[in-house]
Design goal:
The N and C termini lie far apart (107 Å). With 350 residues, the chain is α/β, with parallel strands linked by helices. Helices cover 49% and strands 17% of the residues.
Length: 350
Amino acid sequence: MKYPTKTPAAPDGDPATTSRRFALRGALGAALGLAVALGAFASGAGAQEIELKLGHVGEPGSLFQMSSDEFARRANARLAGKVKVVVFGSSQLGGDKEMLQKLKLGTIDLAVPSTVMSSEVDSFGIFEMPYLVKDRRHMGLIEKDIVWPKLAPAAEAKGLKIVAVWENGYRHITNNRRPIHKPEDLAGIKLRVPEGKWRVAMFKTYGANPSPMKFSELFTALQTGVMDGQENPFTQIYSAKLHEVQKYLSLSGHVYTPAYLTAGARKWATLPADVRATLEQVAKETQAYVYETAQKQETELLEKIRASGIQVNEVDKNAFIAASRPTYEEFGKAVAGAKELIDRAIELGK
């Protein structure tokens, strides 16, 4: 048997009034609960550690790897509880060009590009001009006078924030065909180069057959004969074991390549101001470690590479410098303001 449902009576005996009071109490309770939940969420979010992914193409033992790991160690100590930098080497987050695009999209946070920057910002091609940078002291003057006032703003306009200037190093030529003494010795050699158009132009001028290729694909290309040779600093040659699949190393030192700790400009701007300031400070402080390590590696790694049995020879640098003039001229004409940058860099080296 069903009984009629009764609405609890209000003190004044009006059921409608009682219903309204219960509804109001329920709404107030829900609002209070939501406010408490939001407050707890905001408090938790404020304390949550930010994870930053840092990618590079270097193999274990490379200068890229050592530089990135040292920066991460220092940054994580300085920003403990706020930020954790996690390093992904060996092209785990993609090749250089892919990582630059991911920085712009915000899917990774930091990367260490080198030559590839000239494919994004034409004026970075200055560092592809042969025999331009004399030494690290000269590079320091170029950094102060050219990189920060000229190149960094141009990169930021393309969505890339330069956080610090590090190093990839002086590049040398290896191949399986013959020792390279003069530019004409490169005639017909299939040479892997990084993804930067001025490196292609330079080696075409020398008579080689250059082809851009991802660093992660290089060892196999040399091993199978798809490429005859390549050009890289000792740190990349040794860490990637390229000397194991090459017969000749020619000490050309044709280009000094900086490396740049780089962020995506849009995502970088979303980080707290104090975090950005600390990361920049730590990244710039890490440069001294990078240069010291690079200088030490130059001697140690050459000896290790030589001990592997590869044939090592000097080159006629004057012949290479003379053969490089067309590359300077082409760059000066093709890129707005390039001639002024080159002239200033040369003046700083005097």
